[in-house]
Design brief:
about 675 residues, alpha/beta, Rossmann fold, about 30% helix, binds adenosine-5'-diphosphate, binds zinc ion
Length: about 675
């Protein structure tokens, strides 16, 4: 029997220590993962038994008081995953623990919930699979070549959801638990209902907007094994499964699968870790536009669905050259073509979506005459325009940090029609009202959907045809099923095209393909118009032709050439400070510390270190600088140097370490 236990708490207790050591009374039969009550500073608290050992500590220990939960709250594997997350993503254990166990359960005070009578769900059954669908299903289930990780690459409407349902059914019938991951719950109410009805059982639906009570209730049901079907956003990967059989991850490419506060985990890596510990769990990724990394990694276990089910076909995509519009003296944000199509939609009592790909406050600079965009001389990446951040208007290269004055005439054609791109959704709404006073317009963006049900309300109103046109940002690009929408307009593709980041091409391909997929879902006459000053942009050409294959070939070649993932490993350290001088000085300090460690360890040949101002140069009153690490040997050198950083640079709120970041900016 072990004499000592390391206990993990839900709050930080001592600087630099992740667990506290307690002695184990002889009469307690402790197990790792159990919740125990322990004395702490003249009072009591609760914690998780993290490790058991016989190493006599140098300090006097007190004894654990009692076991609060006989059944471990975490399995040994879950503890391994938690430890790994904590180390890999540089996140204190107490914060990591919060991912796994609801606060009140960890505190030993589970809220009392009145048991609601379980809703009866009548099983409607699963559709007979098409031949292609069945082949995919069999390939996944048969266990040929011991493959346990698959990618289903299928265009929207090709029947992926139906395959997921069938797979879920297979594992449920073996009495296994099933996890279906979706990028954003609020966008998928129909999907959840569909799974429940087809499978005939209620789902535990887990997402970030649950109340603490709801969270505890679901947690308990999964922990006891009562809940077999779990549908959730990224955090549901940490639910207390007892015998998980399969993880199905829909829209695998979505960026919301990466958490952007500590721990900044990427779910693909967490899934890999889970599978390493439980090799029998099957993993199924699905997407119409899979991420470049997953396509590359799972090239040998990718299953294709190339046709839509039924009569609907993919809508035709048309690229509209905005330079010509400008030459024809149309200075409106809508091209003549777009106006014409909107007019038709209104006439036919159909619906349209106008989409704006807006990120951050900075904008790029293009010439409206020739389409030239201002790029950094040394990096050849688009520079971005900042009106106020640096006192005077400035152009910044977010790669090398070069700052220059914005031009007043085009460096290419010498014309005076240089323009800083940055329209908002509000402006589009206003202009629509002017051009089409009779049209009913709804807007979905950060402002209008701030409340808990904000987006849902707008979505339902639009679906019920209480408006003719929906104007919105990213949030309207995904998964919506709106049968009356026959026109999608991308108002200005350039805003997204010019973001200086290695994932920009991929992001745009995915986003444009997805918005396009909102058009013509119930008919054969869907149209998509993409307005741009860069009609020859390669990404747009691939989007127009629905050409994932060539998009991927191009993209993967670029990544290989420029040494970006999956051919390298990255880490980003974001430094934030109210003072520009301090911010810059801190970034230089960290840059130097890392460079020195790399030198000492002999890693400088394979480790590139750069620093530059953030793409969003100032956020909530704080300047942002970035120190960026790239391990071109792809052998995890990143951790070797980051671990050498003094603690004061790692665990502070103004210095954020992001391992495997989704962007360089
Ligand atoms: P995806 O998830 O790839 O977008 P879905 O699974 O939602 O595609 O399928 C698209 C449409 O085709 C849905 O309306 C679905 O009910 C229908 N469908 C899918 N598979 C079948 C099938 N085997 N038989 C009949 N209809 C099907
Ligand atoms: Zn540069």
């Amino acid at each position: 029997m072990s004499k000592f236990a390391e206990i993990a708490l839900q709050q930080k207790v001592i600087e630099g220590k992740e667990t506290l050591t307690y002695s184990v009374p002889d009469n307690l039969n402790l197990q790792i993962g159990q919740l125990v009550r322990i004395p702490l500073k003249k009072s009591f608290t609760t914690g998780i038994v993290w490790e058991l050992h016989n190493n006599i500590p140098e300090f006097r220990t007190v004894a654990i008081q009692e076991i609060v939960s006989e059944k471990p709250l975490l399995s040994l594997n879950q503890i391994e995953v938690a430890k790994w997350i904590s180390n890999y993503y540089f996140c204190p254990l107490f914060k990591t623990l919060k991912l796994f166990i609801p606060k009140k359960i960890l505190a030993g005070k589970p809220p009392k919930v009145r048991a609601k009578k379980a809703e009866q769900i009548i099983r409607s059954g699963i559709k007979t699979l098409t031949e292609n669908q069945s082949q995919i299903f069999s390939a996944i289930i048969e266990n040929k070549d011991n493959q346990n990780k698959f990618l289903i690459h299928g265009i929207t409407g090709s029947g992926k959801t139906e395959i997921y349902t069938r797979i879920a059914d297979h594992f449920l019938s073996q009495n296994k638990q099933v996890l279906i991951l979706v990028p954003e719950i609020s966008l998928t109410p129909q999907t959840i209902e569909y799974f429940e009805k087809s499978l005939g059982i209620p789902a535990a639906v887990i997402h970030s907007k649950l109340s603490e009570g709801e969270r505890c209730q679901f947690w308990n049901k999964i922990h006891s094994g009562e809940s077999k079907l779990v549908i959730g956003s990224r955090s549901s990967i940490f639910a207390p499964f007892q015998n998980l059989g399969v993880i199905i991850m829909d829209e695998e490419h979505e960026l919301s699968y990466k958490q952007d506060n500590a721990p900044r985990y990427a779910i693909h890596q967490v899934i890999d870790k889970i599978q390493e510990l439980n090799p029998e769990i099957k993993i199924i990724y699905g997407s119409a536009t899979p991420s470049v990394e997953t396509t590359e990694r799972l090239a040998n276990s990718t299953l294709h669905l190339k046709e839509r089910i039924g009569i609907s076909i993919l809508p035709e995509i048309e690229i509209v050259d905005m330079r010509e519009e400008f030459h024809r003296r149309n200075s409106s944000i809508f091209s003549e073509r777009l106006k014409e199509e909107i007019f038709n939609i209104l006439k036919n009592k159909e619906q349209a979506i106008l989409f704006l790909n807006r990120r951050g406050s900075a904008s790029s600079v293009v010439c409206r005459d020739c389409g030239y965009k201002v790029s950094c001389e040394s990096c050849e990446l688009p520079m971005t325009y900042h009106l106020k951040t640096f006192g005077n208007p400035a152009l910044i290269c977010h790669h090398c940090g070069k700052i220059s004055q914005p031009p007043t005439t085009c460096p290419n054609c010498k014309g005076a029609n240089i323009r800083f791109l940055g329209i908002g959704t509000q402006r589009i709404e206003e202009d629509l009202r002017k051009e089409f006073p009779e049209a009913r317009v709804l807007r979905a963006d950060k402002d209008t959907t701030a409340t808990k049900h904000g987006f849902k309300e707008i979505y339902h109103a639009f679906r019920e045809h209480k408006a003719d046109i929906l104007v919105g940002t990213q949030m309207i690009a995904k998964g919506l099923d709106l049968p009356k929408v026959n026109l999608v307009g991308v108002v200005l593709a350039d805003i997204g095209l010019n973001i200086p980041d290695f994932r920009t091409g991929e992001r745009n391909f995915q986003l444009m393909t997805q918005v396009a997929g909102r058009s013509g879902r119930a008919s054969q006459k869907g149209k998509v118009l993409i307005q741009t000053y860069n009609p020859d942009n390669l990404t747009l050409t691939y989007v127009k032709n629905y050409d994932y294959e060539n998009f991927f070939k191009y993209e993967i070649t670029q990544r290989k050439l420029l040494k970006y993932p999956p051919f390298s490993q990255l880490a980003k350290i974001k430094i934030q400070n109210k003072s520009l001088i301090t911010c810059k000085a801190l970034s230089e300090k960290i840059h130097n510390l890392l460079e020195n460690s790399a030198k000492e360890l002999g890693l400088l040949d394979n480790l590139e270190i750069t620093s530059y101002p953030g793409y969003i140069a100032k956020l909530r009153g704080k300047f942002q600088y970035i120190v960026f690490l790239k391990d071109i040997s792809n052998t995890d050198l990143i951790h070797k140097v980051l671990e050498k950083l003094p603690k004061e640079y790692i665990m502070t709120s103004d210095i954020k370490i992001d391992v495997d970041p989704i962007s360089t900016t």
